[in-house]
């Protein structure tokens, strides 16, 4: 710090006065840079709205390193140029403060001739100001705007949300506010109080730990403790408790692959509702009809059903009004079409049911769909079932929730209860006016199209798009649950009744559905008035989101459905093959078969056999003979109004396989969160045969494989094929370890691991 001294008997010079100012600035700089040190923070500033598009920043200060800058008075910032152009858009802008050093000049009397005393007015530098400039940085405008990315060295005083009408919201940015010493002192006082409380708690915990140490000799036995750990671990999986920190144990029901090291150099196994032997030979082929032109079936848009004809199922006639379906502003409409859900059938001597299937309830419906209903390496982008989804009446089994499963020895069937699911969807957008009509479907049926009565054809070459969708319980359209869509070009539309064919779609009873058109052409259709059709309502979508229903006008339309010619149809598929013979078959396809009224029964005929066999636990044993080829057919039974369906697209698969005789499965390293030299592993095994099977547990620590120091085998007293292997390992001090399971089989039958538990002791 410096002080300029001027004696009473000396004449003050301009240099003396300038030095006084320099000393003052230097003192402030030393305090701000040495004691305060905020790199870019504001103080004592408020931002307020002074008009629709103007905000005012009050007087205050900006701390920037060793510099201190002032806002001497209110500063208006005009944001008119930053307002979004589109009325429905919003945009965030950041108000940034930047320091600037300005020099003010003034006209002063200056001595130009000392001897004559002559003076003159001249423009000279008079005041140096540390001022603040305001910079506006805008983000990207949109319906859901995001704040702009601001450089780390900038000082944000406030965020301002703008709409087309002006300022909507002002948020002061508190992280960049300079805190006063008074505030810091108050926070420090709170911390000191908490530290005092913590010290007391530590002292209490120390006393409690001493008590625990004294009672340690009375701790529970290790086998009882292991039972408790297993039960707790299983409950954690069932209740889906997130593990935010390492546990000294790891339980895995072997339903998903996230706990297993598939990249291990010795890996030879499958995780498929258990730890199973890997395929030595595997073939994945598309399910296809032996006769693609089979006259007993009808195939439309890859959906195969028993042969049918189109008939009118619901009709609204007598329209005296005309309705322009392109009379409002054209906007982009975004919708989601759902695909038909799938089912999978597995059979063969190596197909065995694992009790850990109950663990799917804890992992969720989406997890099982990904594990059991995917095709050809497909992975679902899962969003889960809609909140207002209800189970199909044709599959309302009280034991099923999300899936229904009929699992028995050698045969496993999994299917989704909903006809249309969210596992596979198609999002699409159409531009134009959107009008719609809802209706109540009273009976289970297969819809194949809709008829509309056109009264005027568009003058321009514009198509008409038609969608069929589900409604919620209130009757409102759900455009994220589109069932089918159709498109007709102008030359395909004629005056009078015109049919829009759709992919065959199962409509369930006592549910509301609807149709909607989207077009940019000036088409008109017939309509009825006075609420003549009481089981539905017409509606208009005005802005891409808002649906406005009509209270008295309904469309003239007809719902077209399938009328089946026969109640029992047999259709043969191309044979399934596997070089060297198969012990495993999996059939995967989308479709439906409403229980009680329809059924799809799969039958097969191994090479050399002459009799067709239905897929049952008994007939699955025929694959013990390792047939290299089996014929395949489906028997579809139905009523004249409702029939089953199979979707024969590229996701309809027929898989065949034969497993190898050795198994090596290695888990990912398990972080225990503590250091240990003793580890226990438990493996539950099912379908064990002493004469054909071997299994051993090992432990991998830091690249070294350790064998067990002791092994206990416990046979289930109720089922001799089930047993538990319990192994103890002694290893160098470690904080993680990976379980390694090895096994062999000499025949077709194979065991599988049901679940594992690894515990650090």
Structure characterization notes:
By secondary structure, this protein is mainly β. Among the domains are: 23-176, no CATH class; 249-278 and 662-760, Galactose-binding domain-like (Jelly Rolls, Sandwich), CATH 2.60.120; 304-339 and 423-555, Jelly Rolls (Sandwich). It is 11% helix and 48% strand. It has 5 helices and 47 strands. Strands 14, 15, 16, 20, 21, 22, 35, 39 and 40 form a 9-stranded antiparallel sheet that branches. Strands 11, 41, 42, 43, 44, 45, 46 and 47 form an 8-stranded antiparallel sheet that branches. Strand 43 (693-701) and strand 44 form a beta hairpin.
Give the arrangement of secondary structure elements.
Blueprint: H1 14-36, E1 41-43, E2 47-51, E3 54-57, E4 60-64, E5 67-71, E6 75-78, E7 90-113, E8 118-138, E9 155-163, E10 166-172, H2 181-214, H3 222-238, E11 249-252, E12 270-271, E13 275-276, E14 279-286, E15 297-300, E16 303-306, E17 308-315, E18 321-324, E19 331-340, E20 342-347, H4 360-363, H5 365-372, E21 403-408, E22 411-416, E23 420-441, E24 445-456, E25 464-471, E26 477-488, E27 496-507, E28 511-519, E29 524-528, E30 538-541, E31 547-549, E32 554-555, E33 557-564, E34 568-577, E35 584-592, E36 599-606, E37 613-614, E38 629-637, E39 645-647, E40 653-659, E41 662-666, E42 670-686, E43 693-701, E44 704-707, E45 710-715, E46 723-745, E47 752-760
Antiparallel strand pairs: 1-4, 2-3, 3-6, 4-5, 7-8, 7-9, 9-10, 11-47, 12-13, 14-40, 15-16, 16-39, 17-33, 18-29, 19-23, 20-22, 20-35, 21-22, 23-28, 23-30, 24-27, 24-29, 24-33, 25-26, 25-28, 29-32, 30-31, 34-38, 35-39, 35-40, 36-37, 36-38, 41-46, 42-46, 42-47, 43-44, 43-46, 45-46
């Amino acid at each position: 710090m410096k002080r300029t001294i001027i004696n009473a008997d000396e004449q003050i010079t301009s240099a003396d006065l300038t030095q006084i100012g320099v000393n003052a600035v230097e003192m402030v700089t030393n305090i701000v840079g040495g004691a305060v040190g905020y790199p870019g923070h504001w103080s004592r500033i408020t931002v307020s709205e002074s008009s629709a598009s103007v905000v005012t920043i009050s007087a205050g200060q900006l701390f920037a390193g060793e510099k201190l800058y002032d806002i001497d008075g209110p500063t208006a910032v005009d944001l008119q140029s930053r307002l979004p152009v589109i009325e429905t858009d919003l945009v965030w802008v950041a108000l940034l403060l930047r320091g600037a050093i300005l020099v003010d000049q003034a006209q002063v009397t200056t001595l130009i001739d000392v001897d004559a005393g002559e003076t003159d007015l001249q423009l000279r530098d008079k005041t140096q100001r540390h001022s603040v400039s305001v910079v506006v940085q805008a983000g990207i405008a949109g319906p859901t705007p995001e704040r702009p990315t601001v450089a780390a060295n900038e000082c944000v005083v406030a965020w301002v949300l703008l709409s087309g009408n002006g300022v909507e919201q002002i948020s002061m940015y508190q992280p960049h506010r300079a805190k006063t010493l008074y505030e810091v002192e108050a926070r420090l006082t709170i911390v000191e109080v908490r530290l005092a409380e913590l010290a007391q708690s530590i002292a209490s915990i120390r006393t409690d730990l001493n008590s625990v140490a004294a009672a340690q000799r009375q701790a529970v036995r290790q086998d009882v403790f292991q039972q408790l750990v297993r039960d707790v671990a299983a409950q954690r999986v069932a209740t889906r408790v997130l593990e935010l920190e390492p546990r000294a144990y790891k339980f895995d029901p072997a339903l998903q692959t996230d706990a297993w090291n598939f990249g291990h150099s010795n890996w030879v196994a499958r995780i498929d509702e258990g730890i199973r032997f890997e395929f030595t030979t595997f073939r994945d082929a598309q399910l296809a009809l032996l006769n693609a032109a089979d006259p007993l079936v009808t195939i439309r848009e890859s959906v195969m059903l028993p042969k049918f004809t189109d008939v009118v199922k619901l009709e609204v006639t007598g329209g005296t009004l005309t309705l322009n379906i392109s009379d409002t502003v054209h906007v982009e409409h975004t919708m989601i079409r759902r695909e038909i859900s799938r089912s999978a059938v597995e059979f063969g001597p190596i197909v065995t049911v694992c009790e850990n299937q109950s663990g799917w309830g804890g992992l969720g419906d989406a997890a099982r769909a990904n594990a059991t209903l995917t095709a050809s390496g497909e992975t679902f982008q899962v969003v889960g079932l809609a909140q207002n989804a209800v189970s199909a009446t044709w599959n309302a089994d009280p034991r099923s929730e999300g899936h229904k499963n009929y699992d028995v020895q050698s045969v496993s069937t999994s299917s989704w209860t909903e006809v249309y699911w969210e596992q596979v969807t198609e999002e699409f957008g159409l531009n134009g006016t959107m009008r719609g009509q809802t209706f109540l479907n009273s009976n289970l049926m297969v819809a194949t199209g809709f008829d509309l009565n056109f009264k005027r054809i568009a003058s321009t070459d514009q198509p008409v798009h038609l969608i069929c969708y589900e409604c919620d319980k209130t009757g409102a359209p759900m455009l994220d649950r589109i069932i089918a869509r159709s498109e007709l070009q102008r030359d395909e539309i004629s005056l009078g009744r015109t049919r829009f064919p759709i992919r065959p779609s199962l409509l369930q009873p006592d549910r509301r559905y609807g149709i909607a058109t989207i077009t940019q052409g000036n088409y008109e259709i017939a309509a009825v008035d006075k609420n003549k059709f009481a089981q539905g309502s017409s509606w208009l979508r005005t802005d891409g989101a808002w649906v406005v229903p009509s209270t008295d006008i309904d469309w003239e339309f007809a719902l077209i459905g399938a009328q089946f010619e026969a109640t029992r149809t047999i259709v043969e598929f191309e044979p399934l093959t596997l070089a060297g013979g198969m012990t495993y078959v999996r059939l995967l396809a989308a479709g439906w078969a409403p229980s009680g009224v329809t059924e799809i029964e799969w039958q097969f005929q191994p090479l050399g056999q002459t009799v067709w066999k239905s897929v049952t636990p008994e007939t699955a044993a025929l694959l013990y003979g390792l047939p290299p080829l089996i014929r395949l057919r489906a028997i579809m039974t139905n009523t004249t109004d409702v029939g089953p369906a199979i979707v024969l697209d590229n996701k309809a698969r027929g898989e065949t396989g034969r497993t190898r005789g050795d198994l090596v499965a290695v888990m990912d390293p398990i972080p225990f969160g503590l250091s240990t030299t003793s580890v226990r592993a438990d493996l539950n095994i099912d379908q064990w045969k002493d004469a054909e099977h071997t299994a051993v547990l090992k432990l991998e620590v830091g690249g070294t494989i350790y064998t067990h120091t002791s092994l206990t085998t416990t046979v289930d007293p109720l089922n001799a094929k089930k047993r538990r292997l319990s192994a103890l390992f002694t290893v160098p001090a470690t904080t993680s370890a990976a379980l390694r399971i090895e096994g062999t089989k000499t025949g077709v039958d194979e065991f599988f691991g049901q679940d594992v538990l690894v515990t650090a002791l």
